[in-house]
Amino acid sequence: MTTLATGAFGGIGAWVCKRLLDGGERGEQGIDRVIHLAAWQVPLGRQDPARGALINVVGTAKALEAVKAHEFAALQRYERLDARELGPVA
Questions:
Q1: 61 assigned to some structural domain
Q2: pLDDT of res. 61
Q3: pLDDT of 70 strictly over 80
Q4: Which domain holds residue 42?
Q5: For all residues of the chain together, what is the average pLDDT?
Q6: Which of 3, 18, 41, 50 lies 20 to 30 Å (CA to CA) from residue 25?
Q7: Residue 16, exposed/middle/buried by CB under 10 A (0-12, 13-18, 19+)?
Q8: pTM assigned to the model
């Protein structure tokens, strides 16, 4: 399976990408699923809530629109990721 992951330089995104690579995923042609974790961090969002909403809410909507436009067949639902369910980051 080939995954397109956004937010790979963030704390959770980097951890998720490491898990994907450790699980045997490699960059190949075609994308089977999308994991969107890109976001503006909370401290910055508190300083400028309007910009935080623009980046996080509108950015997520644009990511979902891109998935729809490219007809990624594997995306059957959108789920919220709870960082507490990920376990320790090592």
A1: yes
A2: 87
A3: no
A4: 3-80
A5: 76
A6: 41
A7: buried
A8: 0.64
| Structure tokens given for 47 | 């300083």
Which residue has 């990624």 as its token pair? 72
Indicate the DSSP class of residue 89: -
Q: Indicate whether 90 belongs to any domain.
A: no
Quick one: pLDDT band at residue 86, thresholds 50, 70, 90?
Answer: low
Q: What's the total number of domains in the chain?
A: 1
What is the end-to-end Cα distance of the chain in Å, rounded? 24
Contacts of 16 (CB under 8 A, 6+ apart): 5, 8, 35, 37, 86
The 3 state secondary structure assigned to 1-13 is CCEEEECCCCHHH
